[in-house]
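Researcher: Please predict.
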Amino acid sequence: MTETIQRPFSAEQQQWYEQACARLNPERLKQLLFAITDIHSPTGAARAASEFMAGHLSEAGLKARYQPMTDTSGNVLAEYRGSGGGAALMLYAPIDTHLECDDAERAWTRGWTEADMQPRAKMDGDWVFGLGASNPKAMVATLTEIATALIESGVPIRGDLLVGMADGGMPVDVSARQHAGMSNGVLHMLNRGAAADFAVVMKPWNWVYHEEPGMGWFKLRVHGTLGYAGVPRGTPGFRSAVVPAAKVIEDLEAWLIAYAERNTSGVVAPHGWISGVRSGDPERAAFPSAVTEIFFDVRINPRTSPAAVKAQFAEFVRDLQQRRPELVLDWEMYGSVPGGTTDERNWVIQSAKRGWEHVEQRPHGTPDLLGGQTDGTALRRYGVPTARIGWPWPAQGSPEVLAEGLGGMGATYIPDLMPCARKIMYIVIDTLTRGRDELGL
């Protein structure tokens, strides 16, 4: 990591920053978070949430518009223009949630009775619960509060502030909704007017990141023959596809761990996880399946292409076949998103680090290695220098019982968001009160 390039605020800029931060209103942020969490917005079906936010941003004083993609899906793009001669800075967050919370998901999500897994909002003091109340709805509400406070403060900006919120931001592929997900919304937005010189993506973890991984989705199939439970083991012609798959899974898990170690660089540790195993028909338990399918997601470092990762996995399969010639395997890469990086010396990265250090009152240092993927990769690949910045996650001390593991990413403690809001406000003032020449444009 490069050292932070110090560029202190002028006395006037410091006054403007304090003036804008004084307008940040945690109660207003909480009420908006509750309202937006109460609007169910699974990937590919975020229209209602996006239309609500377009109206809210318009009322706050931005020129906002809803951008439809399908009958059920669309984005929000809002703008607040400065006096001219400055940069365009976009504050960005996805608006869709990673889960549907329908009956079909109960089988693999272990059910959901906890507050953070409900497609409706609940408030308890400074806590807001509900599906996506932390990720992505807390980001949506916080960025909106920053834009609102800036407008109310009357700070004279030169550049233009953009606020973007897109459907399709979750790492999913919803075939029933025209394959929504995998950043399809932000790519639609970028092709339709979201021209920015810099972008800030708000996401969990209290660091500044200049890069993020991509992802690769693979299916590995173990082939056997169709069987029948009434015949004994050793029957000529029968070969199980299920039992050998258990050992293949162990080999694959070891490869994923070694892959992450081998491909770690920069601030990205590209972990991979086996996501599921699919075989047979529970209505025909008497007939062992002829195919067992193992599927997984492996993250991709910005300095490694999806094709290179595909080649690494192909080598693993060849080696596995050589060691265990009795296996009949085939595989495919059925999804891929390349990683993205921004030069650490770029203005927006340095401004974000200055803002982080200003609020934290300590040097930024080297952040924890990152494996999480966001739409920031798409922004960077489209040539928009992008900083990722966030807040401590997961929230601690919840008065409600929460789902174990990742859950519904749906528990937010409002005071946790406010330092991040001040950090992003620092970037806004630092960037939008200067001319383009001062920003290296």
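Model: The chain has a mean pLDDT of 96.
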